[in-house]
Design brief:
89 residues, Imidazole glycerol phosphate synthase subunit HisF, two-stranded antiparallel sheet, two-stranded antiparallel ribbon, alpha+beta
Length: 89
């Protein structure tokens, strides 16, 4: 999952100032629930996935992502109200 930090000036266009990633994984046995993979590996969350399955998912995810900077391990904090999305052409 990618988290973007977007700055919106009082005038002008908004722009992305930072991108961060968080490895997530899906647990179909738990009703299609999504979990932060690191939380499962660290024992901070529980799922129906086996330790072997979690390790296999980590083994194919983290080596690919390590060149993209550190994983975001905390939820983002909203600093504004509900966003309004409009298409600019």
């Amino acid at each position: 999952m990618t988290t973007a930090t977007v700055e919106v000036p009082a005038e002008g266009r908004a722009h992305v100032t930072n991108l961060e990633w968080t490895a997530i994984t899906q647990d179909r046995g738990a009703g299609e629930h999504l979990y932060v993979l690191s939380d499962l590996l660290d024992g901070k969350a529980r799922s129906t996935l086996s330790k072997a399955t979690l390790k296999a998912r980590a083994d194919v995810t983290f080596p690919v992502m390590k060149g993209s900077g550190p994983e975001r391990r905390t939820p983002p904090t909203a600093v504004a109200g509900t966003p309004r999305i409009e298409r600019v052409q």
